[in-house]
Amino acid sequence: MNYRSSDMNMPDDEDFNGPGSGNIKAMILSQLIPEEYIYDPLNAEPTLDTLRAAAVQYSGETANSQNNSSGIGADDKLNQETDRALKALLDAAETDVNIHMARIKAVLGQDPKLLETYSKYTDPEIQSRIQRLEEMQQQRKDLNSQTQSILNSLNENIDMNSPSKQKKENLTQAHILERRLTSWERALQMYIYANDNDNNKNNDRNLSIVATSKQLTMIQLLQHLCLTSTTEDEETLTQALSQAAQMTSSHLERTSKLLQDAVEETADSFQSYHIHLIAHSVAAQTALKKTGDVHAKFLHHGKEALKIGHALEVAEAKRRQSEHASVLLRRWWMMENLAEQEDLSGEEIRVQEEVRGVIPSSSCRMDPLFTRKENSLEAAKTLKSLRTIVKCRSSNVKPGSGEGLTDLDAKERFESTNRLILRTSAALEQRLLNTFSEIYTSGGAYDFSSTMAPKRAGRLNWMMLREVSEALMSFDSGRSLHKRYVGLVVSTKFPELFVRKGDESETVGEEDIDGTRSKLSNLFHRVCEVCTEEFQLIAHVFSPTLPPHLQSPSISSSGKKIVSNAALFPETFPLQVARALLQRLISDPENGMQAQINGLLDSIDQRGDFDSGAKKLDTFVVIHEKAAGLFHLLKDAAQNMWKTQGTKTGQEHDSAAAADGAYDANAQSISALIQFLTTQEMSLSNGQRKGYLNLELRLLHHHCCVNLDRNGGKLLRSMRTEDSVRNSVGGSPDYRAPIMPLDQDHIRKAGFAALLNGPLKQSVLRQPLIHATDSLARTRLMFGSGTGGGEGVDSTARVVSTIFSQMCNFYGPSYLYPIIDSLGKMLVTNPPNAPPSLPFDENSPPHNLGVDGNFWITIERIHSAAKSFDRELWAENRTGSVRVWEILVQTRSQTSLTLGKERRIRFFQELEERGEAVILRALDTLSAHIHWILVTGGEAAVRSGHRKEGPYAVPSGSILDSTNSPAVKALTYCLRSQFVHVQAALTPQSLSAFWISLSRRVYDILVSRLLQNYKVSTVGAVVLSRDVEALRSVCMLAGNEHYHWDTLRELLTLYMTPPDSLKTMLVGADGDANSGKGMFGRVGKDQSIVFMSRRVDYRYRTNQGSRKSQWVKELLEELGVNDPTDGRVNIGNYAAENITSA
Q1: How far apart are CA 1113 and CA 1102, in angstroms?
Q2: CA-CA to 1048 of 20 to 30 Å: which in 270, 712, 836, 1084?
Q3: Is the peptide bond preceding residue 839 cis, with omega within 30 degrees of 0?
Q4: Those residues with Cβ within 8 angstroms of residue 762's Cβ, 6 or more apart along the chain or in another chain
Q5: What's the pLDDT tens digit per position in 882-907?
């Protein structure tokens, strides 16, 4: 490029070398190159003038080439021009790179001539730099190839340090040092130029690995250099290190130069790459713009083509309408001509015979369109169009308007033609129906694998049925067609149901119930098989489109090519046919499945006993299970109506995909059919469920009551409760079992033995639960398990809750509650009036204390029955038990689950309350008999011994005959025997509470009598202590809260201690009554003094009455306390319930 302008002259060479040449050069450079190069040439941006000019030229040439490109070979010519333009852009980019570098060199060298003469291909600096880099690459390549030899040479130099090696080869230290430095320099070059330090992760300093490794580190190089023998001196090592330093410095200078060369080469390459990238960007932007223009032209021309296509389609539709109108007009004239001939000749055309083919074709007066069977579809369409014309003409004539009445002949011809058209339509429709019946009744296997399969022997020709059905759709929208089809199915497939025999009896004897039920089960299987086959036939015969594998062009049964797979059937027609068939099979009032089921159930009802009721219940379950399976299979069959037999090949895929829209439309019909089946199933099952539920509840109540009646129970008349009657949704009342309680008087009179061997027998207790679990199992079969969701969930929950509520009513008010109430009346609450004869003979059975041992066995049986009821019927948290709780949880009916929990809680709460009442009554009975033995019996024995102050006022020096008093000995004997029965009947918690209460009552009876009536002497205190210990021992058989006996044992020491030691015992060694020590601190002041007051020596009798002993007065005065016995003592304050542990 010439940078000299026409009005500026470049100075000669001598002008640049004269005085002031530097200023001249700077001025010239500032005029020839941009200003940014002057200030910072290395970071200046290239101007790209050449590339911009080439880009402008390229854009113009591209636009011209697009406008002129047309005809054959235009695309190749356009591609060649594009390639040439791209090459021109790249050349311009290369020129801009050279200009940029020339400007940088001119500024740096202050030489304007370089702007014209500079070229990067001839620049000596660039060439020498390239040469140095190439030499370095070659050296690196050589070093990489010689790596092993260099490492071996280093190992040989290591061996030279040995004295034997030096002596053998006659080597001097100078030779060894020279050879070592030579090898070390080669290794240094390999380390600098060929060694990959980044990947060297082995920094082991052991020299033995050098021979096997091709990587070197600086540490290893220094080790090689510093290895010396014992003969080397320090001067030799210094010399070696000095020469190594010189080698390293020279290579460092060379490496620095190479690094600078690489930096400069990278900068030049970056500028060149940047400029070439701009060139490619210009080319890409131009190509993108050209593509946008082409796309815009395509859209413009595409819209025009679309408009033209729509116009052609409209014109084609009008042409087809014209042709159809022309053909229809000729057909009308033909029918009008035939009607006119018929009127003129006076002889009626035998339309029925001609259309049916009775008259030979040569003798027929009608057109072959109506007499030949192969023209049936076209004839049916023609007649439909003609009837439409007649209908439109009739609807357009307004009575009284005078329109259409001017030409009477035309009106008469129109009416004649109309009558002939109707006669022909009726005859053709009858012929098609007869043809349909003949083809279907001929039978054969259903084969839908291909359109040629129906023509094989032994196959039903469903393709011919489809053609006939399509023709029949032109008559009353195919109403007679699906009626004929349904009639053919029920008459040929179910002749035993829909073909009546005059002599057949309609009643079923009781010996034929099982056989009838078996026949009904076989009927279900037969219906399932037939409907599965017929659904497939309906889908292929009455559907507007065939499945994809049958939609390829084919030949009809008459030999004509099928142009289109779409028929005249509406999309809902298969659904109508299937629904009509199912309605006839299921809901026929005389012979349908519902009628058969009702007949079977009615025949069972005629017997009227409970055994037939159980058989009817089983029949309900069997029928429901079979019906559920039937409808499940029918739904599967409906879902698989369009199941293809065979796979589509690659050639068939396109035609099948084209019909996907019409094929998918059938899915809506299938869905509607499945919904219809669901409705029929609900309609069939709801009636059965209603009758089943009432019968189930009635028989369950009957079996439970009969179980009690047969085992000695007497039931009273029914009781009405607040929920005894409840209306169902349909208005008829649901059965609610009456409450028929056991007769309590009968139970009381029969006694415990009859009760335990009768209503409370283990087998009798289990039997109602067995009946209830059977009812739950049948309920799950009738109403579902509750896991599928929907309306059945609520029904299942409601029925299960009803059964559980009925069983709660039976087990509670009818069964267990009366037994518990009668137990209280069977106790002997009042002891005998006469005192017992003490002591009791321990070899004979102990006294039952008014509570028979069977009483506790009865309590245990009732408790076991309640637990069994809860475990076997409610069964909470027992997964897999299929009991009430699990079924209600599966139904997810929170309302039913809450009601069930409330009913269960109410049952057990009332049972617990009644049980507690009767056990409390038993406790009262025991208390009364304990008082009878301990007080009445004990005092009777004292009176016989002439001791008026009680059994423990034994005179001093008396000899004790026995360990305990006779009353206590007899009482402990009876209580231990009673404990065995109580322990077997009650749970550990209940036993503990009961025995603690009994222990407190025994304590209260003894202490109240002691504080009110008895005196205790020193000898009597020993007897009293033994009696208390015996009573304490028997009372501690169960429970832990017996602190009152420990307190009493401590108080008894007051009767054994001399008066002079009482003070220390009462208040402790300190003698302070308020110190909290002694018996005052542990038992209490009042209680200690009250018990102490029962000592025999506490008071003495005088003529003026009772007086306190002197030691009593002194003791009370020393203690500074009052005597509570001076006034009225409230014995209730010292009852066992007021005593707590210390």
Answers
A1: 17
A2: 836
A3: yes
A4: 861
A5: 889 988 888 888 999 999 999 999 99
Bridge partners (DSSP) listed for residue 727? 733
d(CA 815, CA 429): 74
| 3-state class percentages of the chain: helix first, strand second, coil last, to nearest 5 | 70, 0, 25
Measured distance CA(933)–CA(937) in Å, rounded: 5
Give me the mean pLDDT over the 3-15 stretch. 43
Long-range contacts, stretch 443-449, CB < 8 angstroms, 24+ apart: 443/492, 446/533, 446/536, 446/537, 448/536, 448/540, 448/547, 448/550, 448/645, 449/645, 449/646
pLDDT band at 157 (very low <50, low <70, confident <90, very high): low
CA–CA separation, 904 vs 907, rounded Å? Answer: 5
Is 723 strand, coil or helix? coil
Residue with tokens 């009925």: 806
Average pLDDT, the chain: 79
CA neighbours within 13 Å on the CB side: how many for 387? 15
**C-alpha span between 565 and 560 (Å, rounded):** 13
CB atoms near residue 249 (< 10 Å): 10
The sign of the CA dihedral 548, 550, 556, 557 is: negative
Residue keyed to tokens 């006839």: 584
Is the separation of the CB atoms in 508 and 606 below 8 Å?
A: no
d(CA 540, CA 578): 12
Percent of the chain with pLDDT over 70: 80
**Neighbour-count burial of 744, counting CB atoms closer than 10 A to its CB (0-12 exposed, 13-18 middle, 19+ buried):** buried
Beta-carbon neighbour count of residue 594 at 10 Å?
Answer: 19
User: DSSP characters for 138-163?
Assistant: HHHHHHHHTHHHHHHHHHHHHHTTSH
The tens digit of pLDDT for each residue in 822-831 reads: 998 999 889 9
Return d(Cα 470, Cα 564) in angstroms, integer.
13
| Cβ 355 vs Cβ 428: under 8 Å | yes
**Using an 8 Å Cβ cutoff, are 984 and 859 in contact?**
no
CA 646 centroid distance within chain: 35
- Strand pairing of 1105-1108 and 1099-1102? antiparallel
In the chain, what is the straight-line distance between the N-terminal and C-terminal CA atoms, in Å? Answer: 124
Question: What does the block give as tokens for 1062?
Answer: 């009482």
Structure tokens given for 632: 């499940």
In which residue are the tokens 């065939």 written?
Answer: 546
Query: What CA dihedral angle connects 828, 832, 835 and 841, to 10 degrees?
Result: -50
- pLDDT, one tens digit per residue, over 715-767 is 988 765 444 444 443 444 678 888 999 999 999 999 999 999 999 999 998 99
Neighbours of 1115 (CB within 10 A): 20
Q: Cα–Cα distance between 448 and 540 in angstroms, integer?
A: 8
The confidence score (pLDDT) of residue 999 equals: 94
Question: φ and ψ at 925, to 5 degrees?
Answer: -65, -45
Task: Give the three-class secondary structure for 1016.
Answer: strand
DSSP state of 72: T
Burial pattern 13-42, b for ≥16 Cβ within 10 A else e, equals: eeebeeeeeeebbeebbeebbeeebeeebe
C-alpha 74/C-alpha 385 separation (Å) is: 56
Beta strands in 266-374 (DSSP E): none
SS3 state of residue 473:
coil
Q: Which residues pair with 459 in a beta bridge?
A: 445
Contact 1000, 937 (CB under 8 A): no
404 has pLDDT over 60: no
Alpha-carbon span 118 to 103, nearest angstrom: 9
| Model confidence, pTM | 0.59
Query: Residues in the chain, how many?
Result: 1142
Residue 567 has pLDDT above 80, yes or no: no
pLDDT of residue 324: 86
CA distance 1038 to 1030: 15
DSSP letter at 954?
Answer: P
- For 568-584, the pLDDT digits (tens) are 677 778 888 888 888 88
